[in-house]
Amino acid sequence: MADIKKGLAGVVVDYTAISKVNPETNSLLYRGYPVQELAATQPFEAVAYLMWNGELPTDQQLADLRATERAHRALTPEVKQAIDLLPTSAHPMDEVRTAVSAIGATETAGITNVLDAVGTPEENLERSVRLFAALPAIVAYGQRRRRGEEAVEPRDDLDYAANFLWMTFGEEADPVVVDAFNRSMILYAEHSFNASTFTARVVTSTLSDLYSAVVGAIGALKGPLHGGANEAVLHVFDEIGTADNVAPWLDEALAEKRKIMGFGHRVYKRGDSRVPTMKTALDTLVEHYDRPEVAALYDNLESEFVSRKGIYPNLDYPSGPAYNLMGFDTLTFTPLFVASRITGWTAHIIEQQGDNALIRPLSEYNGPDERHIEGYVPDA
Ligand code: ACO
What we know:
InterPro entries: 2-MeCitrate/Citrate_synth_II, Citrate_synth-like_lrg_a-sub, Citrate_synth-like_sm_a-sub, Citrate_synthase, Citrate_synthase_AS, Citrate_synthase_bac-typ, Citrate_synthase_sf. This protein is mostly helical. It is 57% helix and 3% strand. It has a three-stranded antiparallel sheet. The longest helix is centred in the middle third of the chain and has 26 residues, at 121-146. The structure holds acetyl coenzyme *A. Acetyl coenzyme *A (ACO) binds next to loops.
């Protein structure tokens, strides 16, 4: 019998120089830098640069990236049209997936030979920066469209995080909120061979193009066992209601063998390295908005669940309520994850292209034995 590794658990499939997850030391490094140090000191644009180039930018390199990012912030007519064709009740992850697909179809229009669609490393870096620049407007437009609000044009005088909040809410965000949002973007940016990144690498390994790989990754991220959990955490908070309802709610949920969203991780078994940084950002927001009941519910659910199951929160647990406090609709949370993870995905796509091998594992057949169509006579 073959040695089946269900879910590829514990299987090392390739090298990567982009990030290192170490569950033993509970650490996460992006290109060698601890993520909490990056979150405390860098703007998200600098971390995006690091992801693609392997080093933090000089002042000039950061200014150049910011200039390119600002030049590609606005929604193009094609993308706006593609989104507007969808019902306003469409899930925003479907909207984002459609928008990226529309960008890909537009940017690769005219390529008539499938071998040319893959692009050079330089072209793919430029495509990555343009997607990074376009996603905030796509996410912000989606939320405003669902609320029946007019789109808000980007502001050239604001950095990535401040402009993202501006386009979503139509007002300048408080620096405390901008800082928490910037940190969340950095924490979500990259996490080695997670399900969506691996999907992007599988698509890339067939020599398909970067946009197709990102569309596949968005599909993988949507699921609640992966990125969809940040949305699902808020549904859990809504169900529980108040901190004093945690214990009875948990009794029932565990009796029904429900998975509690925002807890557990395939790699980290003693806590997610990103949680303390995001929890600090959440605490700042709780204080800023004067919403102590959110912290009470968060703390109660965490301590009850950890003491009963010994399973720790993952990044989606603090980021869900943090995005809620900032004013994002619950359905917009996973698209925010996309806007951040586009940096990690595209870095992996470029890395895969640089040393490609078709990803094609084997399976052990366990279906019916060979059988035949009655009356079938093979051609002589
Ligand atoms: N709630 C209840 N039980 C859980 C949870 C949870 N959140 N997570 C794990 N368990 C239990 C499982 O039921 C299983 O118990 P059993 O052995 O008695 O059957 C055991 O712990 C092992 O769980 P698996 O699901 O087999 O472990 P795996 O490594 O595949 O799970 C996963 C990782 C999918 C993330 C899981 O913990 C989960 O479903 N969590 C909830 C969804 C979630 O928060 N996802 C976000 C992931 S992080 C991110 O994308 C940023």
